[in-house]
Amino acid sequence: MMAALALGGVRVSQADEAVSTPAPVVAAATMAETVSEGLSKILLGGAPGNVSDLKAMQQRVQKLSEKLMLATVGVQVGQAQGSGVIVSKDGYVLTAAHVSGKPGLDVTFIMSDGKMLKGKTLGLNRTLDAGLMKIAEGSDFPSAEMGLSDILKDGQWCLATGHPGGYQSDRKPVLRLGRVLLSDNSTITTDCTLVGGDSGGPLFDFDGKVIGINSRISGPISSNMHVPVNTFKETWDRMVKGDAWGHLPGNDPYMGVQGDPAAKEAKIAKVYPDSPAAKAGVVVGDVIISANGAAVADYAAFKATINDHQPGDKLKLKIKRGDQEVELELKLARK
Fold this sequence. Notes:
Number of helices: 8
Strand order of the largest sheet: 3-4-5-8-7-6
Shape: elongated
Structural class: alpha+beta
Number of domains: 2
Radius of gyration: 23 Å
């Protein structure tokens, strides 16, 4: 069923058009406790059966909309633009890793009223496209609570906000209605209509809690992907510290070596011609002792270290070569 709701003077539609310190874990039953039993069944996957059901959904969206849009921010990192959501009164902001880029970059946050605030990028999980940022100064920011992404039901109604096409001064964050199509520990798929600029913006349940972050946006509306909010909760300390790990799909780092499976240490058995390793001077028989200052126990650990980087990153290697120790630096390429 196609549902269209009138929100003040704005039309919020499903599927066919787009218009204009973390909170504690919440109980799974919150939605049932905050809406009527009939509406709760609809929001958890049922289809509106009549005009009264649609009006009830409309009223729920109207009740939530202002709070959700206040917590949604525009994000500018260099020339890149995206969206994010404030999830704590002291200014932590969830976004997508491909929006934040890397830790330690300057960020400009644009509030829903157009006010600009400065901040920094923090940690990111590139593999799942999860990024954390922080507003540098101030407190008591409008924020949204983080919900639970591991209890989502297929067909459950949801709301996505963001700045499609980038921030525009004459327009508040845009609210889109949709449904959860699939969800697992790494990805939520919805049919919320999203375009460029929405990346990093929040996906909400009908309690107004953040359940995901807009990630991969594609042509078919049914292929829009979101980072589950539990990903942020599970790695919160690492992100706050500014750790960065993993790599985006299709952006695999390449060094150009193979390890010796019979060796207990990280011993190099093959070096591919013209690879970053070959150009840096790595040779067969070298034993990797450390990478960027971190000790390497064996080749599996070294491979994991490489996979926590992305193409273009530099690796400083300490190598045992016979009776000598050699230090080399190389730049990872794209596989």
